[in-house]
Design brief:
The complex is a heterodimer of chains A (616) and B (159). In chain A, the strands form three sheets. Chain A has a 26-stranded antiparallel β-barrel. A five-stranded antiparallel sheet of chain A has the order 1-10-9-5-6, with no helix packed on it. Chain A is built from no helices and 37 strands. Chain A has 616 residues and is mostly beta strands. In chain A, 37% of the residues are buried. Chain B starts with 8 loop residues before the first helix and ends in a 13-residue tail after the last strand. Classes of the chains: A mainly beta (616), B mainly beta (159).
Chain lengths: 616, 159
C-alpha cells in the first residue's frame, strides 16, 4: 500500500501534482504506474525515480506525464522527483513513496527483508600520485521489518564501506527505526519534523519523532539533535537537543478547508559547528512558537502566522535571553483577469528560532505582485520594500531596500520557450549613528532563458547580466552564460554536455571562468557498455593571481559477467570493468601547484537483492 | 487562464543556474530565508551550511544517479560573492552572485550540473568561497555511490 503524509492521492507539490498512485490502499502491483499533472509547466522535464533518470521512458500527453515501471518496484521507500523547466522558471516536485506488500491477510504475521547489497573492488595501476592499493567499496541498503495486521516495525539505513574514505571507512547513514500502529508511528533515527515557517518549516535532524494521526488532526512530538549531524553521537545522546511539539488540524468552514498548524520548539545548541556547518555563532539556547492558519475565504487565499521566541544567543556570557515576536501575512486573489498577491512580514530585532539558524529577524517587508497571461505568453511584476532596524535602534542605521521585478515568458506550441526577466533594487541607509557613513547601492539584473526539446534531445540556454553600484565599494558587474545539450538517439546511447562561461569585474580586476563537462554512455550490446566523463575548467584573472586549467576524464568499459559466476543470491548481478582516468592541473602562475596523474582500474562489481519474507 | 508567477520565478531560475542578485521580495512562506545582521558594509560570511536533497550531510546514491547539493550562506554587508562547487577537489560549477540586501543566500547546484556519480565509493562535496575571503572552515558533505546499476542514464528530456 502507498502511505505517508506526502504520498496521498492528488498530492499538490507546487503546481505539480501526483495523480497516480491515487489510493493509499494501492498494492505494490498497482503502484507501478505514475501519473503526474504538470499544471502550467510546459517546458522540458526531468523525471527521477530513486535518483535514476527515467525521463526517456516517460510519455507526455499535454500537461500529463505517464511513467510505467518495467519491473516491479521493490518494497520500501522510493523517491519520485520532477524537475520542470518552464519559461517562467523552474519547478520541482518531490514525493516520498512508501510501498508495502498487499495488506497482510487476517491473522498473518511476517518478517521481511527488502534490502540490497552492492560490493565493488578495483585495483589501480598508474602514477605514484595515485593510491595503488586495492580500492574496495560496499553498500548494504537495509530495509527489514516485521508486521502483523496493525503493527509494523521497520529498520532502514545504509551501511557503507570505502577503504578510501576519510575519516571513517564505515558509516551508517540515513537510518530510521519505525514502529507503526495503524496511523500512528514512533521513529528513531533521521527524522523530519514539520513545524511552521516562523519556527522551522522542515527540520531534518537525528532523534526521536512520535506521530499521532486522526482523521483531521496530526500531532508530532520531537526530541532531536540541535545541529546537523552525521554520526551516532547525537539525538538522544547529545547535549545539543531540541524538543518540539507540532499540531495540525483541518477545519471545514462553509465547505472550505482551513488548516491550523502550530509548533513549539525548545532546546540548546551547545556546539553550533558540525561536519557540514561552519559558523562564527556561539552556543545558544531558546524557545520558539508559531501558530499558522491557511485556507480560502471569499475567493481569497490567505496564509497568516504569528510567532514568539525567547532566545539567548550566547550561553557562554552574562547576556540574558531576549523575547520577541514575528508575524507574516499573505493574500492572493484573482481580480479583473489579474492574479494579485500581497505579502507582509514583521520580525522583531530579537526574534530567533533555536531550530532554524536562518530565521528572519529585525525586518519589515511589504510585497505586491500581479500577473496575467495572454494566450501562450505571460507577464508578471513585483514590487517590494524592506526595512531593517525595525525598532530604530540608535546604535544601527535604518536601512531600506526597494525592489521591482518584471518577467515576460512565451511558450508557443512546438517552438522554443523563452523568458526574460529584469530586476532592479535600491538600498539606502538613514539615521546613521555618529561615525557610521551613509550606505547605499543600486543593482540591476537582466536574465533570459530559452529551452527546446524533441523526442531524443533537448537543450537549454541561460544568460544573466548583473551589476551593483555601491557607494563605498564601487561598481561591480557579473555575467553568466550556460548552455546544455542532451541527446538520446536510442535507449542504448546517451550524451549530455554542459558549458558555462562566467565572469565578473570589480575594482578594475576581471575574473573569467569557463567550465565544460560532457558525459555519456553507450550500451554496445546486452553485456557490454561504455561510459565516459570529461570535465575541463579554466580560471583567469586580470590581476595575474589566477591562471589555471584543470582537466578530469574517465572512461569505463563494463562487461556483464553474471552468467559466468555462480548465483550467490537470487537475482544477483555481476560486472567486470576496466577504467582509465586522467587528472591534470596546470597552473600558469605557480608551477609547483601543477598536478597530473593517470590510472587504470580493473574492477568487479556485484549487486544482489536481499529480499524475502517469512510468514508465521 | 491566468498564470501568476509571484516572486519572479525566472529570476530564481537564472539565479539557480547562473547566480545573480538575490532580490526576491518578501519570502513569506519560506521565511527561514534570512537572519538579521548588518545589511551595510563589505560582504562577510558568518555561517555556511551544506546539505544534500535529503537535508542531511550524507547521501547514498546509485551509480549514474542524480544528486544536488545546497548551501545556505549567512552574511553581513553586501557585494560580490564568488564561489565554486567542488567534488573531490574538482570544480563542477562556478557561482557569481551580487548580494545586495538581506543576510542569507541559498546556492543550489544547477539542475544541469553533472554531479559525478561515475565512480563507486565515497565522494566529498564542498563549496570553495573565492570572494569574500573568509576564515571559516569550509564544511564538507559526503555522498556514497553504490554499485547498483541504473536502468537509464541521466540526461535527455522529452517533450
Amino acid at each position: 500500500m502507498l502511505s505517508s503524509a506526502v504520498a496521498q492521492a492528488n498530492v499538490v507539490n507546487g503546481q505539480i501534482r501526483l495523480l497516480r498512485p491515487a489510493s493509499v490502499s494501492a498494492s505494490v502491483d498497482e503502484a507501478q504506474e505514475f501519473e503526474i499533472d504538470m499544471g502550467a509547466y510546459r517546458g522540458p522535464v526531468i523525471v527521477l525515480l530513486d535518483n535514476a533518470d527515467v525521463t526517456s521512458l516517460v510519455q507526455r500527453d499535454g500537461n500529463r506525464l505517464l511513467y510505467r515501471q518495467d519491473s516491479v518496484l521493490s518494497l520500501g521507500v522510493h523517491h519520485l522527483q520532477v524537475w520542470a523547466t518552464d519559461p517562467a522558471g523552474p519547478g520541482r516536485a518531490k514525493w516520498e513513496l512508501v510501498l508495502s506488500q498487499t495488506p497482510t491477510a487476517a491473522g498473518q504475521r511476517e518478517i521481511y527483508s527488502r534490502s540490497s547489497l552492492s560490493l565493488s573492488a578495483s585495483q589501480s595501476a598508474g602514477d605514484k600520485t595515485q593510491n595503488s592499493s586495492l580500492s574496495t567499496n560496499g553498500n548494504l541498503a537495509l530495509n527489514v521489518g516485521a508486521k502483523s495486521e496493525q503493527v509494523e516495525a521497520t529498520f532502514q539505513g545504509n551501511i557503507t564501506y570505502s577503504n578510501t574514505a576519510t575519516p571513517n571507512k564505515t558509516s551508517l547513514s540515513n537510518y530510521l527505526l519505525t514502529i507503526k500502529h495503524e496511523n500512528d508511528s514512533l521513529a528513531l533515527g533521521d527524522v523530519n519534523f514539520k513545524g511552521t515557517p516562523l519556527t522551522a518549516s522542515s527540520l531534518a535532524r537525528r532523534g526521536v519523532l512520535a506521530t499521532v494521526n486522526s482523521s483531521d488532526t496530526s500531532l508530532q512530538l520531537l526530541e532531536a539533535s540541535a545541529n546537523t549531524v552525521s554520526g551516532w553521537n547525537s539525538g538522544l545522546f547529545s547535549q545539543n537537543r531540541i524538543y518540539g511539539v507540532g499540531l495540525t488540524s483541518t477545519l471545514h468552514a462553509s465547505g472550505q478547508p482551513i488548516r491550523i498548524s502550530s509548533a513549539v520548539l525548545s532546546g540548546e545548541n551547545g556546539a553550533p559547528q558540525s561536519v557540514n556547518v561552519s559558523t562564527t555563532e556561539t552556543p545558544s539556547r531558546g524557545k520558539v512558537a508559531g501558530l499558522q492558519g491557511n485556507g480560502r475565504a471569499f475567493d481569497t487565499g490567505f496564509t497568516a502566522e504569528v510567532g514568539w521566541s525567547n532566545y539567548d544567543k550566547n550561553t557562554t556570557d552574562t547576556s540574558k535571553a531576549q523575547t520577541d515576536r514575528a508575524m507574516s501575512l499573505q493574500f492572493d486573489k484573482a481580480l479583473m483577469g489579474i492574479a494579485w498577491t500581497f505579502n507582509y512580514l514583521f520580525a522583531g530585532p530579537e526574534f530567533a528560532s533555536i531550530a532554524n539558524p536562518r530565521a528572519q529577524r529585525d525586518r519589515q517587508q511589504y510585497g505586491l505582485g500581479a500577473g496575467t497571461a495572454f494566450g501562450v505568453s505571460s507577464l508578471s511584476a513585483t514590487v517590494s520594500q524592506s526595512r531593517d532596524n525595525v525598532d530604530s535602534n540608535p546604535m544601527n542605521p535604518v536601512v531600506f531596500n526597494n525592489a521591482i521585478g518584471l518577467t515576460y515568458a512565451i511558450a508557443p506550441v512546438k517552438w522554443p520557450v523563452l523568458s526574460l526577466s529584469w530586476q532592479n533594487s535600491k538600498m539606502s541607509s538613514t539615521a546613521e549613528p555618529i561615525g557610521v557613513p551613509h550606505a547605499g547601492n543600486s543593482s540591476s539584473t537582466l536574465s533570459g532563458n530559452t529551452s527546446y526539446g524533441q523526442p531524443g534531445w533537448s537543450s537549454n540556454l541561460a544568460l544573466s547580466l548583473s551589476s551593483i553600484d555601491d557607494l563605498t565599494q564601487g561598481k561591480s558587474t557579473s555575467n553568466s552564460q550556460q548552455i546544455s545539450l542532451n541527446f538520446q538517439p536510442s535507449k542504448d546511447w546517451n550524451l549530455s554536455e554542459a558549458l558555462s562561461l562566467s565572469g565578473n569585474e570589480h575594482a578594475a580586476v576581471k575574473q573569467k571562468n569557463k567550465l565544460a563537462t560532457i558525459a555519456g554512455d553507450w550500451r554496445l550490446n546486452p553485456t557490454h557498455s561504455l561510459n565516459g566523463q570529461l570535465s575541463i575548467s579554466r580560471n583567469d584573472s586580470s590581476d595575474g593571481l589566477t591562471d589555471n586549467v584543470q582537466q578530469t576524464a574517465a572512461l569505463r568499459s563494463a562487461w556483464n559477467i553474471t552468467p559466468s559466476l555462480p548465483q550467490m543470491f537470487r537475482g544477483n548481478q555481476a560486472s567486470l570493468s576496466l577504467s582509465i582516468s586522467h587528472n591534470r592541473l596546470q597552473d600558469n602562475i605557480l608551477a609547483t601547484r601543477n598536478q597530473s596523474s593517470n590510472s587504470i582500474f580493473l574492477g568487479i562489481n556485484v549487486t544482489a537483492p536481499l529480499e524475502g519474507r517469512v510468514g508465521f | 487562464m491566468n498564470h501568476f508567477y509571484f516572486a519572479c520565478p525566472m529570476l530564481i531560475a537564472v539565479a539557480i543556474m547562473t547566480g545573480c542578485a538575490d532580490m526576491r521580495p518578501v519570502p513569506v512562506g519560506s521565511i527561514g530565508a534570512a537572519g538579521g545582521g548588518t545589511t551595510t558594509g563589505a560582504l562577510s560570511i558568518t555561517r555556511i551550511e551544506l546539505v544534500f536533497d535529503n537535508g542531511r550531510a550524507q547521501a547514498t546514491i546509485p551509480r549514474n544517479g542524480r544528486l544536488s547539493a545546497h548551501a545556505s550562506i549567512q552574511f553581513n554587508g553586501n557585494g560580490l560573492l564568488r564561489a565554486a562547487w567542488l567534488v573531490d577537489g574538482n570544480p563542477i560549477e562556478i557561482v557569481n552572485r551580487n548580494v545586495v540586501f538581506g543576510e542569507t543566500v541559498i546556492l543550489d547546484t544547477s539542475p544541469i550540473t553533472l554531479m559525478p556519480t561515475f565512480a563507486d565509493g565515497a565522494h566529498e562535496v564542498t563549496l570553495r568561497i573565492d570572494q569574500p575571503q573568509t576564515a571559516l572552515r569550509m564544511p564538507q558533505i559526503q555522498y556514497f555511490v553504490s554499485g547498483d546499476a541504473m536502468p537509464v542514464r541521466p540526461g535527455v528530456t522529452h517533450e
